[in-house]
C-alpha cells in the first residue's frame, strides 16, 4: 500500500493490516509446494439454465487451512462452494463443467454419487437451520442414518465439545434445538456437520446472521478445528477473512458484451498478501474499500 | 482422508450401496403411486366415455326411461325428465345457497368480531363434514314427513351442501380485497353498506362465481340427499318444483340396479353427460379463478 | 370556508348520515340473519335426527349398537352389522389410500420433473370431482367383475389362511367397497399431504442432504416428521369421507344385514350404505326410527371427526408457528 493518492483509504487498509498482523493467531504458511491439496479445481464453470454464474475458476484448496472466499455480492461465491459438495445438483437446470479434483478424484463426474461426496465434504449454512428435533437428535440423526451408531452418545458429546457447545447444552440434550439462541444454533449446526467426520467443511457466510459475540465464537472455532478439518468459508466481511483465513480467494463480477454478467476468480493467495500487497488492481480496489 | 473413504466415492461400499438401493426402491414406489392414480382416473373416465358416448343419441334428451327396456329390443328411452329435473333442482338450490352464502361471508369479513369469526368458520366446517345422506334424512324429517316429497325439498337439501362451499370461497375472496380500498371509500364519506356492496363485492365477483360454479359441480352429482326428498317421480318430463322430480344421479343409481343392458347403457349415457358437465364446469371455474386472481393482484398494484 | 357555507353541508350530511346508518344496520342485520340461519340449520339437523330416532332410542336403547341383525318383519333392529361394515370399509380404505396418497404427494414434491407436476396434480384433483354414483356404476360394471374374476381369487389362493381372505363370492363384497372407497378418499389425503410437503422449509432439507443422506433418508428424517400432524389431519378427513359415503358403497357392497363375517370377500353393509338402500322401503314406526338412529350414529361420527381434525390442525399451526 504505497501509493500516495490513497489518502482517505489509508485508515481502512491499515485496519486490515492490523487485523492481518496483530489480531490473527495465524502461523506463517509453508511454501505452497509443501502443502497437501484437498481440492484441485481446473476451469470450473457453473451454469444455471443458460446463464453462466461462474466462469473458468482454477485454484487449489489446501489441507488443514482456512480458505476464505470473498468478493462483492453476486460474484458467485455461494455458487462456487456449493459446487464443491455438489449441492448445486439440487437446483434444476444446473450444470458444471471443468474438473473438480478432490484428493485426485474428479467428483464433478456423472458417475460420482453426490451422496458419497457430501458425506466427506460437509456444509454449514448462512442461517442456522437445526432440525426441529432435540439437541441430541440433531447431532445423532446423521450419525444413525450414515451408520455411525457405535458409541453414539460419545460421538455426540465429542462433536458438541468440539463446537464449544457441550457445556451449555449438556443438561438439556433432550430439549428442542429450536429453543437455543442463534449463535448456539449455528454451533449446533457445526457440531452436526463435524459429527459425521468429514474431511472438509464448507461454510457459506456462517456468521452473517449472528451478533458480534456469536461471530467471535464461530471464528474461534475455526481456529481450533483447523488441524482436524479443512475449511472453506465464504464471507462478505473482509475483516473476518483477514482474521481467520490462511488463504483468500477474491472473486469479482465480469461483464460481457451483451450485458451478461458472471463471476470470476481474480486472485488467490495467502491472506496476508491479498490484503497487504494484492497483485490485481481489482483486488486492491475491493480490499481497500473503494468498491464493493 | 483414508483410502477407504476416498474409494467410496467411486466404488460404494456395502452400506452405501444398500442405502442407495433403498432410495431407489422408494423412488420407484412413488412413481408407481402416481402412475396408479393417473391410471385409475384414466380408466374411470375412459370407461364412462366409451360406454356412455356409444349410447349417446338424441333420444337421450327427448325421451324418458321405459319399463319395457329389458324385454323389448330397441326400446327408445332417454333421460329427458332426469335432465330437466336436475336443472330445476340444482338451479333452485343455487338460488337458495348463493345469497345466503354470500351474506354469511359478508358478515364474517366485514362485521364479525374475531372470536365470532372463528366460531362461524367452525360451524361452516362442521356443516361441510356432515354426510350428504344425513342431510337427506334431515330434510326428510323436516319437510317430507309432513308435506311429501318435492323437488323443492331436494333443492333445500342440496342448498345445505352448497352453503359451506359458497361461503368459504366468498370469505377467501373477500379477504383478498385490500383494506386500503375500503378505507378509501369510507374516507370519502361513503357509508359502510354502500362500500361493501358497491366497492368490495364487485371486486370479488370472479371469486364468487368460481365458488358458485364449483359448488354446482359438486352437488350436480349428489344422489344421497335426493333419495329421501325427490325420488318418487313420474315418468313424464315435468318442471313443477312442488312435485318430486327425477334427476340424473338418481337415474344412474336406479338404472344401475336393473338387469338389462339397455338400462345399463342408459346409465352410462347419463353418467357421461354428468361427468362432462362436471369436468367442464370445474375447468371453467379454475380458469375463472386464475383470471379473477390476476385481476385482484393487478388492482392492488 | 365560512360557517354559512358549512352549515348546509353539515345539514345535508346528517340526513344522509341517518340513511347511511340505516343502510349499515340493514346490511349487518341481513348478513347476521344469514349467519343465524346457518346456526339454526346445524341445530335443526341435530334435532330432527334425534327426534326421528327417539322411538328407537327409547325402545332399543344403547343395546341397538351391539345387536346384530336387521329384520323389519320381527321388529329386530341392530346397528352392529353396519358399524362393523363401516369400520372395516373405512379403515381398510384408509390403510390402502394413505400410502398411495403419500407416494403421490412425494412424487409431486420431490421427484416429478417440472412439466409433469401441473398435469398430474390436476388429474388427481379431477379424481375427486367424479360423483360417487358414477364411481359406483363403474364399480358395479367394470371393477366388480375384475375383482371377482382375478384379484379376489388370487388373494384367496395366496393368503387364504387368513380369515380376511376367505372364499370368494360375488363381486358385491366388502372388498369391492374398500377398493371403491380407496379411490374416493385418495385425492383428499394426497392434496393435503402435497401442500404440507411443499411447506417444508428448503433449508431443513438442504441441511439433511448436506450431511450426505439420500433423498429418501431426508424425506424420512425431515419431511415426514415436519408434516406428521397435517398428514394425520388429512387421514382423519379422508376417514370422515369414507365413513359418510353412502351411494358408491351401497352400490357395490351387497347389502347383507344379518351377520358379521370377517371374510372381506363376503357381502356386508355399512351405516351409510344401509340408509341409502332403505329409501324406498322403510316402514314408518320402529323401522324408520331405527334408520334415524343409524343416521344419528353417523352424525355423531362426523361431528367427532370434524372436531378431531380441527384439534389437530390447531396443534399443527401452533407448532409450525414455533418452528
Ordered list of secondary-structure elements with their pairings:
The complex is a heterotrimer of chains A (292), B (301) and C (323).
Chain A: H1 10-23, E1 37-48, E2 51-62, E3 66-70, H2 77-84, E4 94-102, E5 105-106, H3 114-120, E6 121-124, H4 135-145, H5 152-162, H6 166-169, H7 182-195, E7 200-204, H8 212-225, E8 230-234, H9 238-244, E9 247-255, E10 261-270, H10 271-276, H11 281-287
Parallel strand pairs in A: 3-8, 3-9, 6-7, 7-8
Antiparallel strand pairs in A: 1-2, 1-4, 4-5, 9-10
Chain B: H1 3-10, H2 14-54, H3 59-62, H4 80-111, H5 114-129, H6 132-147, H7 151-176, H8 179-187, H9 192-203, H10 205-220, H11 224-227, H12 248-257, H13 261-300
Helix pairs in contact in B: 2-13, 4-7, 4-10, 4-12, 5-7, 6-7, 7-10, 8-9, 10-13, 12-13
Chain C: H1 3-60, E1 70-71, E2 76-77, H2 80-111, H3 114-129, H4 132-159, H5 174-198, H6 202-210, H7 215-244, H8 247-252, H9 271-277, H10 286-322
Antiparallel strand pairs in C: 1-2
Helix pairs in contact in C: 1-10, 2-5, 2-7, 2-9, 3-5, 4-5, 5-7, 6-7, 7-10, 9-10
* Count of the separate structural domains of chain A: 1
Rg over C-alpha atoms of chain A, rounded to the nearest angstrom: 19 Å
**Radius of gyration of chain B using CA atoms only:** 26 Å
Considering residues with a beta carbon less than 8 A from a beta carbon on another chain, report the largest interface and each chain's count: B-C, 86 and 88 residues
Q: Any idea of the CATH class of chain B?
A: Mainly Alpha
Q: How many extended strands of chain B?
A: 0
Total helices of chain B: the number is 13
The secondary-structure class of chain A comes to alpha/beta
Low-confidence stretches of chain B are: none
Indicate the proportion of strand residues of chain A.
25-35%
Per CATH, the class of chain A reads Alpha Beta
What's the total helix number of chain A?
Answer: 11
Unreliable sequence segments of chain A? 1-12
CATH architecture of chain B: Orthogonal Bundle
Oligomer: heterotrimer
